[in-house]
Design goal:
This protein is α+β, with helices and mostly antiparallel strands and 185 residues long. It has eight helices and four strands. A four-stranded mixed β-sheet has the order 2-1-3-4. It starts with a helix and ends in a 5-residue tail after the last helix.
């Protein structure tokens, strides 16, 4: 079931991305989809907006009224209306993530996540980002996570690649080399 939801979100995002590319406003779409995804991340909001007792046009207008500070792209509202009509608001987050992935691919931006045992300081983050940008030859959007189970060091996930510089990873590699006889004590 999750796979069908993912492929559906991908189709919506691909169609939206084509429209945004055509209209040359992909950054606006990106920002607005993120805002809508944040608003629909609350289950209570989704339940109200998908309530069949409330007419669709009233639900759509109520949702629009939340975003009055900056004008939204009309096609974004068309997408929201379609999703509301089909009662699939839970997909908005996946659509926004998929849209971002398409945007990053087009712009040559790579997504990476650095996980460390403790919060990294600005210099460490800059060093990791610089190293990744050197590896990829492109810009890197780096997100940071903290996992105290790592003991120390950093793990970086760049797409499907895992760069394990954690203390745990180093100890496991050492144990494996000792067990295989590749490293004589």
């Amino acid at each position: 079931m999750a796979r069908a939801g993912t492929s559906t979100a991908r189709r919506y995002a691909e169609a939206a991305f084509e429209i945004a590319e055509r209209d040359k406003n992909t950054e606006q779409w990106l920002t607005q989809l993120d805002r809508i995804a944040a608003a629909t991340s609350d289950d209570r909001v989704v339940r109200v907006l998908e309530d069949p007792e409330i007419p669709l046009d009233k639900r759509h207008e109520a949702f629009k009224s939340v975003f009055t500070e900056t004008p939204m792209v009309p096609q974004v509202w068309n997408l929201v209306g379609l999703i509301l009509r089909r009662r699939r608001l839970e997909m908005v987050g996946a659509i926004a993530r998929e849209f971002r992935r398409l945007y990053y691919r087009k712009e040559g931006i790579f997504e990476a996540t650095a996980t460390s045992a403790a919060k990294l300081d600005d210099d460490e983050v800059a060093a990791i980002r610089a190293r990744l940008e050197n590896m990829t030859g492109g810009r890197v959007e780096l997100s940071l996570d903290v996992d105290p189970k790592l003991l120390g060091g950093v793990q970086v996930r760049l797409g499907d690649l895992l760069i394990d510089g954690s203390v745990r990873g180093r100890l496991e590699r050492l144990r494996s080399r000792l067990e295989s006889g590749a490293l004589v004590p």
